[in-house]
Amino acid sequence: MMCSSYNIYRVGISFVIMCIFYKSAVDSLSELSPQKYFSTLQPGKASLAYFCQADSPRTSIFLEELNEAVKPLQDFGISVAKVNCVKEETSRYCGKEEDLMKVYLFRGNILLREFPTDTLFDVNAIVAHVLFALLFNEVKYITTAEDLQSIENSLKGKANIAFSYVRAIGTPEHRAVMEAAFVYGTMYQFVLTTEIALLESIGTEAIENAHFYFFHCKQVLDLTQQCRRTLMEQPLATLNIHRFIKTMEAPLLTEVAEDPQQVSTVHLQLGLPLVFIVSQQATREADRRTAEWVAWRLLGKAGVLLLLRDSLEVDIPQHTNVVFRRAEEGASVEFLVLHDIDLIISRVESNTHIEEIQEDEDEDMESPDMDIQDDEVAETVYRYRKTQLPLELTVELTEETFNATVVASDSIVLFYAGWQAVSMAFLQSYIDLAIKLKGTSTMLLTRVNCADWSDLCTKQNVTEFPVVKMYKEGKHPVSYTGMLGTENLLKFILLNRISCPVNITSVQEAEEYLSGELYKDLIPYSSVSVLGLFSPNMTRAKEDFTEAGNYLRGCVITGIYSEEDALTLSNKYAATLPALLLARHKEGEVESIPLANSRAQDIVQIVTNALLETFVSI
């Protein structure tokens, strides 16, 4: 259904534009003869060429806009060149006057599309049209409500939809949607329309502006049920779309039992507040239903969490039922008494704002538009864009050095894209990690810029950015799936120092494992230990647990005990073999969970669910 948008970047595009020569500020365009240009076309090489003759200046405005488009097109792997024609040139691209007013889109030496230059009226139109032509599989253009309903029905239970309305093809909003589709097109089905009637059919009142909706279809199993729809309320810009999609990917509701001041979620990273619905054991289910309703109302605006008062070590005022925490660093939490859901919504909406970036007077003229720098990740990249990172602390890998490096030493590899804000923000965290581990780790920290080595990233099954993988000799690479931060990645690396599941050989060693003594240096990074208990003849059950332990590696410590005296432990902890013992070190408790007829994926789910009740970061 959704082809990889990254393949487009990998194979490369040649984009040829016909014009009449005009000597303007196009110094950034490489100048080639037609023969030289065509000789450079090859599979995997992207090229944007402007064919020009030297006797008419009437396309000066278009040349200026094309020059503005050089950098953004290069960010998507499309380089730019200007090809100078002479009167004797016989190439069809240096031919008739009418041909000189068209734009030609190539992949390698194959013509894909041609556009009249008057449709490429500015830099936004150029970028939007090029990406739209390339992403025809990722972005479906529709004109009727029936088209939308058909796509929605076909994706129920399978995938979510990113639906957008723009006033016209080639507008800044259209460009923003195409840039988002280039990044997220493999994860969601992008659907685009320019029909106001279609926008009206889904109940939108303010139809004068562009709109972006997220259709929650993946969780819908009943084909008669309509997909929930969440509207992005911010202006339709690339960074806003990224920020909005990240909130759609986050859990709708999370249960926590820790100090609200210490909780960290993706919402805070994106500059959104947190709302804690305070609950207690006696009213937990009713409170959870209320919290879910609030979470749907605030989706994309705030993170919603269910705070379990009974398990808290910090005091919360007796009558408090809502705790509000702003996203600003250092902001204190507010303890509130709100008995109406609308009051909670109002509280969030009246207190949500995005920090403005103040541009210094001496900034260069090529700085990004401050009107759209409202994504906290991109803001970080912008704010520190002139800071020189100590990249020498990590090893840069290429297609030639990658295999030899990961075979020669255990390696952590960061796959990132130099054109993407999230990648560049995480690169800073990755360098911070290198500083923390300098001189103490046997793991080699490396990086691959997929903007330069797209084939290598494709071979390593990297289709979105950033991605971190751990390579160890003789083992399949392990992907890091945690939050994009220094401490979380550090935890992943340290927990991977031991080979899970650990083979426990005696009852005494098992007790030390469950108490946290066996790996006490790792307890700060994993306050939970999981032990699988089996009798020696439970071969299939042990294989399933081992597979689950491998999957959970870097997330939690797992061990396995299958000696003849396993019954000693099962009797002590009231567990029927096969069983799972979950040791919570903070609470000093050991919980037993039966594993009869549980396959590997079931065990992973059991452990994940058990951890989620207390550990929000898993």
Automatic annotation (TrEMBL):
Residues annotated as domain Thioredoxin: 395-493
Limits of the TXNDC16 second thioredoxin-like domain: 132-251
SUPFAM superfamilies cross-referenced by the UniProt entry: Thioredoxin-like
Stored Pfam families: Thioredoxin, TXNDC16_2nd, TXNDC16_3rd, TXNDC16_N
Domain TXNDC16 third thioredoxin-like intervals: 252-342
TXNDC16 N-terminal domain segment(s): 28-131
Protein name: TXD16 protein
Organism whose genome encodes this protein: Crocuta crocuta
Lineage: Eukaryota, Metazoa, Chordata, Craniata, Vertebrata
